[in-house]
Design the sequence.
């Protein structure tokens, strides 16, 4: 690096022209590489990236926004930063959108409408190219801001009515119905639902309602017991909920859980008490977390399409930004994964 460039770097902001000069290309080529890297040849891309790395160049997104009225930023709000389910979706979105020169601004709502509203207000101040929200439940002010922003909006991880723009997800009601039906088909007659934060987690609430409907439809007058673990560490909460359930309703023989962490906590408590899973109580969770097929017995669960949602959201965003036709409702579906925690010996003996 020349002394002149070194001096400039120490006293002024490095410009696109500096990058172009060092890479021996035009400034417009550098701009194209930053906006649409796939449209620049591999050889030129390597030279430009090398110059960027050498100079420590950081694009001025706001300068581009003044000309285009939009930054190359996508605002994303998820309910939780620590939930691996959402992390997989966001990671896939970043890979696809990043390849097209977009960057994610990530916020989390902690399942609170007011927190989502604050994040949306902040992100809109950056003139994003699009906004991605989780679910369909938003405050009136959030809906007003987004409707007035003229920014493409994708709501993910849920299907339902009254969308803001584009929906990408699956039916959580159908998930709950499928969970309970699976236990009933395995021979369960008295089913409970154990969830957490049902007062604020609309998707878990829908799974609970779906399981209750399956019990009504398939078992007639029998009713599912519902336990809300509330807030706190899920495995510990599930252990307490399981203890309360079998104490108050010792005839329960099947449990639907709103997520796999709750299943794990209950499974551990059952083993401590000498309760056989699935012979005494069958269990099924939701999420297909990494540990789900490693437990003894392995946990039956529902696999949500985490990566598929991320890819579909990214492609929907790109199509909306480019003004291309886009489906308004994309149902990705889900997969039932029957494993040892729900497959009783009597069922396995009749399997083909």
Sequence:
């Amino acid at each position: 690096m020349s002394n002149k460039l070194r001096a400039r770097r120490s006293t002024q902001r490095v410009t696109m022209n500096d990058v172009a000069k060092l890479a021996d290309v035009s400034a417009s080529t550098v701009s194209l590489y930053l906006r649409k890297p796939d449209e620049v040849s591999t050889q030129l891309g390597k030279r430009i990236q090398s110059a960027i790395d050498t100079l420590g160049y950081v694009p001025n997104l706001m300068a581009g926004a003044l000309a285009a009225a939009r930054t190359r930023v996508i605002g994303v709000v998820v309910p939780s930063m620590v939930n691996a389910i959402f992390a997989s979706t966001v990671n896939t979105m970043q890979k696809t959108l990043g390849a097209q020169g977009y960057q994610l601004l990530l916020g989390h709502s902690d399942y609170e409408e007011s927190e989502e509203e604050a994040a949306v207000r902040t992100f809109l101040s950056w003139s994003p190219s699009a906004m991605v929200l989780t679910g369909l439940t938003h405050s009136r002010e959030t809906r007003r801001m987004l409707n007035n922003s003229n920014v493409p909006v994708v709501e993910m991880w849920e299907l339902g009515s009254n969308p803001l723009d584009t929906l990408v997800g699956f039916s959580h009601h159908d998930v709950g119905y499928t969970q309970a039906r699976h236990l009933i088909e395995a021979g369960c007659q008295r089913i409970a639902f154990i969830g957490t934060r049902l007062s604020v987690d609309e998707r878990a609430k829908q799974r609970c309602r779906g399981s209750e409907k399956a019990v009504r439809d398939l078992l007639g007058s029998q009713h599912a017991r519902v336990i809300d673990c509330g807030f706190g560490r899920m495995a510990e909460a599930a252990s307490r909920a399981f203890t309360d359930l079998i104490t108050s309703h010792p005839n329960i023989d099947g449990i639907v859980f709103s997520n796999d962490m709750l299943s794990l906590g209950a499974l551990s408590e059952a083993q401590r008490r000498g309760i056989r899973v699935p012979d005494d109580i069958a269990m099924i969770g939701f999420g297909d977390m990494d540990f789900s097929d490693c437990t003894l017995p392995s946990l039956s669960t529902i696999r949500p399409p985490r990566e598929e949602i991320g890819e579909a959201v990214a492609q929907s965003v790109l199509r909306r930004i480019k003004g291309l036709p886009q489906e308004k409702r994309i149902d990705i579906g889900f997969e039932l994964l029957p494993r040892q925690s729900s497959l009783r010996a009597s069922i396995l003996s009749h399997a083909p």
Notes: Residues 1-11, 347-352 have pLDDT under 50 and may be disordered.
